[in-house]
Request: fold
Amino acid sequence: MFYNVENYFDAKLDSSLTYNEFTPDGDLHWTLSKYINKRNSIYKVIKAVGGWNPVTIIGLAEIENKFVLSDLINSTPLVKEKYKIVHFESNDFRGIDVALLYKSDTFILLHSEKIVIRDPKNPDFTTRDILYVKGLLATDTLHVFVNHWTSRYRGYLESEPYRLLASRALMNLTDSICMVNSSANIVLMGDFNDNPNNKSMQLITNSSLCEFDNPKLLSSRSDVAGTLKYKGNWQNYDQFFVANALITGNNGLQCSSSGHIFDAEFLLEVDLQHLGMKTKRTNIGYKYHGGTSDHLPIYIDIISIQ
Reply:
């Protein structure tokens, strides 16, 4: 599962950051009660996605720190599921990171590290790191990369070079894995801030030694055609890329040929301006709105075939 949870901040002042809007005295007047509501909403989503079979691996974006992750898995009924955390602090100016939760009785962690994205032309550039996690799922090694690439707030053309930087950095890492093992089981997940037809995404599907497939994400609703809605148009920034070995099942694990957008009613609301439905956000501008996120979660099934 992957989910951009949209500004999952605690309500504490962080004196090490200049960005402290998500505090009681900040512009968003973020309080403990709002934080707890956010935490419990995220728990509800994770539980609903898994149903009777709790999600094994959960990639998350826009989390502030390890505390909010620990609180999520220890202060909600998720405590029963034996989740553990992989998280590193990044140099993102707002202090948001990517992270991974995993069921420790199903997935055995072997290695984790953060991959820092650097711009040779601009040494002051900072963004979220790529998170790399390697572990055993069933009896086979699975490589997972969690991504949250540079957003389009600067404008598409102005920000595209930074997403291409991340794409090339990611391809260097996965190519090094596939040079050693051409049948490696690899899953890339994240909010890439690009649609499948954009250059950074095409680089992954067309230029990788691992031969990645970008599984189609299916929605159960006719009025949901992506994972987030911007100015009336659904976008598909949240995606999975799966190495060909996982599609064919050559190496003990097999991935379904398509994934899913989790589009439950409680994550949506009527789009009065553009018609149809839209995601129910936590904040709209500086106003508290009470929703869970501006993104919908995505998930995909992987089974052992041994």
